[in-house]
Fold this sequence. Notes:
single chain, 14-stranded mixed beta sheet, 17-stranded mixed beta sheet, about 10% helix
Amino acid sequence: MAATQCALLFAAHIPxxxxxxxxxxGLGMPCTSCQGEKSLYNCTKESETWYQDALYSATGTTSNxxxxxxxxxxKIILTPGVVNIxxxxxxxxxxxxxxxxxxxxNVTLTGMQCSSTSVSDVVVIRxxxxxxxxxxxxxxxxxxxxxxxxxGPNEHIPxxxxxxxxxxxxxxxxxxxxxxxxxxxxxxxxxxxxxPSVVDPSNIIVERGIFLPxxxxxxxxxxxxxxxxxxxxxxxxMYDQWVPRYxxxxxxxxxxxxxKFCKGNVLWFNGTSFTNPNVIANNxxxxxxxxxxxxxxxxxxxxxxxxxVSKKEWTSSSQMSGTTMGVSAAFVGTSNVTVSNNTIYGGxxxxxxxxxxxxxxxxxxxxxxxxxxxxxxxxxFQKRYSPKHPPLDSNGNLAFQTVDxxxxxxxxxxxxxxxxxxxxxxxxxxxxxFGKNIVITGNNISYSVVGVSLYRQKDTIVxxxxxxxxxxxxxxxxxxWGISIDHSHNTTTTNNIINNWNGTGIMVQxxxxxxxxxxxxxxxxxxNSISYCRQGITFRNSGIIxxxxxxxxxxxxxxxxxxxxxxxxxxxxxxxxWGNIPQECNTECQ
Length: 590
């Protein structure tokens, strides 16, 4: 007898047999099961959106957070098969415009575990070609939130809590020709942009794979595979720069006219505490075009994930920076995040961070500061735009030719605000945006332009990571720095192995009172091993009292110094105690 895919509801490990959901036409049919195993359940409720109806029945909620019934279940098990998301659920700003599946609080959503990993034995949630015919992409395939609509203009979205998602495959590809190929994840193919691990962009109709905008704790994402999205595979928290932190600021002339720096709205993905964090673990992320995992929040553990990023925006040294990241570890004030034992391939940054001032951005601000933005950009950018005004369409909206151009122009605005606020006497202002207490340890990172990037971070540890670019002999890979410490202070970089990074092994930069008060100061670089790099350790326009001890720099590229401290300010101590290192080292500082 034919079987149908089902959603099984469980309360305290006991199945609720009157609430077994399946697609329309499956009522009374046995549910799918692992190959070779007899089905134990039959479908008792059918609907077109059976996957969503099961979640709302289990939690007793609706899309606007209203409790319509007593919660029935604490766990939903999806039986093997492909869940084709056929209906868009409307979401309110700032959650985008639509999602495929809404997961409320107090529920576990998991796939049935089978011994085989063939398509017939796994649970796949993917965007249906029916949605692909619509005019816009899904903002997210899965959103974890108490509600996705229904809040007032001055209300904050309540944080989701007590949610686990596990043992499923999430795909943003709508290609029905070969589902099995769409589920392939070969990191080398992803880095090189080869099929089948990288699919045709015209088949990708999802921005984010799993989106977790606000959390108050007890969130677990584990053993999940996320494939083929235009944005991030797993995105947590949100910096909504076009909305002010305080609603009254929207009509406040000093914020709206572009001359005053006000803070933007930040949504936080917060764990309960440092010892009881939200956990993102043992997941696989492939062919997510913007990045793998993004963290904006506090008390989060990101561990044992396998991430391959298919897109690089930073392709030459003439460009200012990149945008894509394997793990975005710390943005706009994030703290107490551990990124450990992950394997990361590709992207502009393996593990990145951005502690810029969380600015409320407006079009008048782009106009007011356009001269400064334009002058700071490379010639290729300047050729595309007027020096007199930002690019605007007939409706007065920004009209940059590429997303990359917009990102870099906006970053320049953030830099202007960040520099200006250094003179503020309020520590919450001049320190605003800094990431702190970030631990990046035990990760293996390959074929990124920058392995680990700390921008405006403090009290951070980078330790025991392996950064290697020779495992596949891909000689065309462009790289800059193994570890970049940029306008960050009180960081410790220790026991890292950096091999075959064609640029500099460890770069420290940041003049005090420019993009941060202390710049690149009070940092410790100790017992790292650096080999086959163009330069071992370099200080460029950096700060004061940095300590460099017992590092081994071996076999650097011909014609370059093993280390160069000429860009460091030698106020206080610059400890130059070395282990196994040749003498070709410029230790003269300013």
